[in-house]
Write a structure and sequence with these properties.
Radius of gyration: 20 Å
Strand order of the largest sheet: 3-4-5-6-7-8-9-10
Structural class: alpha/beta
Number of helices: 12
Shape: globular
Helix content: 25-40%
């Protein structure tokens, strides 16, 4: 396993993040435990979850289910919690009547502190290394939010503050207000970025780099479009088949060209897509969400793959970059 620091902090994290969103609704607790055990054996020390994960279409699903599964895994002991850099999130509604009118989406000081305490209970721990705001709150009061973070950090319940799905101006505002408060501020941003979603290159990636933030990538395979079998689904009734039906002709052509390139490299589409992210110096780590041990081990293989300059150029030909701002649109 390879490790890097999380942005400008001294915290060492694995170059792959174990995403837990499938635990509960799509992955049984027994299988989730096996995946977490194997991830630990492989050296993945960075786990990502959220207070809302576990919500699903059936009656047994509920927000918080995923954190409960992770918490019971920690409770098995043998150093599981001590060896894990744990990240969770706050923002979304929990459908919990006890929150009353404070349940809707947002990041008020009340929501941050209440949601954090509930997460700690479910996770069976007294702290998390990274507490991320799941989305921007457009009614945000930075003094309130950063003050709440300073409180929970001072209490030892949180080590670092992070964001997810923030715009560039939000990161800039947060950095400016944190500086005024003599506070470290946000150390990482979790964002959607992949070969099919390159818009973050315009402003977000340069800003994250300039602010010294870590960049954690969600949906590195564009919800499976950059995974193998999307053009040739093995299960005619599965999720891949449903996705495949709705691909445009232009997208099919892109994926077919990419599939051909991956065959020539002797690697899968998933591996090449993850390797492309890992070779970007701004990227800290992509989040992988394996539902099987085989998928987990396949993702770890990515760390052994180096893409040549010619391959990177060909990927740019297939999946064109958007350029940088303001040059891309100003002249």
């Amino acid at each position: 396993m390879e490790y890097t620091t999380l942005g400008r902090t001294g915290l060492k994290v694995s170059r792959l993040v174990l995403g837990t969103m499938n635990f509960g609704p799509r992955t049984s607790e027994e299988d989730a435990d096996k995946i977490m055990d194997r991830a630990r054996e492989l050296g993945i020390n960075f786990f990502d979850t959220a207070n809302v994960y576990g919500r699903g279409p059936n009656l047994d699903s509920h927000a918080g289910w995923t954190e409960e599964i992770v918490g019971r895994w920690f409770a098995k002991g043998d150093g599981r919690r001590k060896s894990t850099v744990l990240a969770t999130k706050v923002y979304n509604p929990m459908n919990d009547a006890s929150y009353g009118p404070n349940d809707p989406a947002g990041i008020s000081a009340y929501k941050i502190k209440r949601s954090l305490n509930d997460s700690l209970r479910r996770l069976q721990t007294d702290h998390v290394e990274l507490l991320q705001m799941h989305h921007i709150d457009h009614h945000i009061n930075w003094d309130e939010v950063l003050g709440a973070y300073q409180d929970v950090i001072a209490q030892g319940k949180v080590v670092y503050a992070g964001s997810s799905n923030f715009g560039v101006r939000h990161l800039a505002f947060a950095a400016a207000h944190a500086h005024e408060r003599h506070f470290l501020g946000l150390v990482s941003e979790q964002h959607k970025y992949n070969l099919l979603t390159r818009l973050p290159e315009l402003e977000l990636l340069p800003t994250v780099k300039d602010l010294g933030m870590g960049l954690i990538i969600w949906s590195p395979l564009e919800s499976g479009q950059l995974a193998e079998n999307i053009l040739h689904p093995t299960d005619p009734n599965g999720r891949r088949a449903e996705q495949s039906k709705h691909l445009s002709a232009a997208r099919r052509d892109q994926l077919a060209r990419s599939e051909k390139l991956c065959r020539e490299l002797g690697e899968t589409q998933s591996t090449v897509s993850l390797a492309w992210l890992l070779q970007n110096p701004v990227v800290t780590a992509p989040i992988i969400g394996p539902r099987t041990i085989e998928q987990l081990e396949s993702a770890v293989h990515t760390l052994d793959v180096h893409l040549s300059a010619d391959t990177l150029e060909e990927l740019d030909n297939i999946f064109p970059p958007v350029g940088s701002a303001p040059e891309a649109y100003a002249w």
